[in-house]
Amino acid sequence: MPLRPNKKAEVRKNSYKVGVDADEGRRRREDNVLMIRKNRREKSLQKKRREGLQAQQMPAKLYSSAVEKMV
Hints:
This protein has a domain at 24-70. The protein has 71 residues and is mostly helical. Helix content is 82%, strand content 0%. The protein contains two helices and no strands.
């Protein structure tokens, strides 16, 4: 068995478990991280919007219940 790989062994080695190249993998990871950030930001904004709406509705409810008690 020769210690130096021959042409056939080199071709076989290069074709074994051919996956995604480094640039493609990096691009996919960056896209995934970007998507995760966008989703997290959108959820945070939705939460703030809901809290803002509830805060606006709360004084109106308190006011209407106070008016009903007076009548």
